[in-house]
């Protein structure tokens, strides 16, 4: 009888065993979406965009510490893009906005104001949604130059038109179903006798939705003034290149735009069918209109408007579709902007490639043995790792301080140093091995000339800076052949790259260093910039043949901002760090999961970065991670039971006694990678 009991015990173990080994196989559950930890998006794929009730989002954020940790939301709480567009009359409203915009621009053309163009949300939608409209927008925005409006109105009056102002002239040209109103502090008014000529801050064209008489869409008409025009009341920042134009509206003083970004206008279409005009440099204009950025903010409220009166937030998921998955299981991470450090591991690249091939990652999770990898604490515990980061910071401090003392006070972080500062909250990339600081070539030349005028005998800027360094630091030149301590090889600032080196006092024969780069104004004599046309002018570029990708808009660089590195080293960073980083790293600044660590002298072994789906390793059954192994286990148990019964029958006949079964322990510490 004991043989039967033994088989029953083994068979009863099968459900428990199968549950353990199939935890990565989706079981019936509600559909969830995992929210991307990326904070903002230039243009997120629409199949990853959701609207969720703000209260639910706030609760999810509090419960998970997003974005340090992912948020998983039930899709029943949210609307995906198709559902958003399927809301009552949503698509019709976008069509209505387009038709109102078309009616307005056509009427403006007929009265003689042919140079109207998209601004504000209409320009943003056109730019960000490939000629479309922001999906949750509720109005259009068109602008004309006040000077052109005045000239048009004068021409109409000269022809004997009895109109009192441009609103009456445009209203007379509108198709049936549309009308003009004035927009004032008190609201809107159909009374078009309240102003003369073009002396209105804002006008609006309204049109009823087709088939309704109680709901409208509309497009606003804005007036821009040349800063040089008589009576113009522009309040422009000095960083906006002249000549400039500004929006004639006291609530929108930030709308100062370089005329070079506005003109000449370009012909385009809205929704692929409505003819419109857009500024010469749409991105340059948008950066002035939206100084905080034009990105879609993840987990942020949808701007309130009459069509979305409920309190919604925008959510961008980490994958295009919801996945059927058990509670507590999260989806795969393709990349992470700033992963929680307690989930970051370094693993041998060979092992990672083997695991990817064997598991089909990222279509399926991969489980790795913790003995193969280093967690963040172990990474930082590698010989002199923490000390090296401190050394990089001290080298950066020594360099910027020396630059200040010679007169080059406008140095700033670039490349990996800026990336680490931006991505690691004022820190350094944990596996970095050097610092990066830049100065403008023009400033360097002026500083060197000033030093020579004071009687300094230095031949170049390297000698001047080297003389100001504290003990233990020195300057070298960086060339194709390597580095050199010979500082007599160039004149003034005519060098591609310099480097400040420091010996590690705690590790003989090893150095940390910070590179110094030179940027040139594209307009400077002798500058060899090769910038893409999408980089707004004026621009700067790196004086280095290996870094032609480093073309940056000057408005992203200046004015510089004071900050700190590792919380203690005073540094300067660009005015718009993310804008600069996008130019320096066109493929993205995210940490790539299961991708190699950039090779450097401090990590000579072939490592890959791995981001786990939980902070700590779990006890998981080794290898048993698919339904396949469950089936194999069941077959093995059945065969074992049959064998045991045969064995015991045979043994019982031979010896009349039973033998105990030996337990097996196949548990190994593991962690799962999403």
TrEMBL record:
<dbReference type="GO" id="GO:0009100">
    <property type="term" value="P:glycoprotein metabolic process"/>
</dbReference>
<keyword id="KW-0732">Signal</keyword>
<keyword id="KW-1133">Transmembrane helix</keyword>
<feature type="transmembrane region" description="Helical">
    <location>
        <begin position="627"/>
        <end position="648"/>
    </location>
</feature>
<keyword id="KW-0472">Membrane</keyword>
<feature type="signal peptide">
    <location>
        <begin position="1"/>
        <end position="18"/>
    </location>
</feature>
<dbReference type="InterPro" id="IPR007074">
    <property type="entry name" value="LicD/FKTN/FKRP_NTP_transf"/>
</dbReference>
<feature type="domain" description="LicD/FKTN/FKRP nucleotidyltransferase">
    <location>
        <begin position="411"/>
        <end position="442"/>
    </location>
</feature>
<protein>
    <recommendedName>
        <fullName>LicD/FKTN/FKRP nucleotidyltransferase domain-containing protein</fullName>
    </recommendedName>
</protein>
<dbReference type="InterPro" id="IPR052942">
    <property type="entry name" value="LPS_cholinephosphotransferase"/>
</dbReference>
<dbReference type="Pfam" id="PF04991">
    <property type="entry name" value="LicD"/>
</dbReference>
<feature type="domain" description="LicD/FKTN/FKRP nucleotidyltransferase">
    <location>
        <begin position="116"/>
        <end position="147"/>
    </location>
</feature>
<keyword id="KW-0812">Transmembrane</keyword>
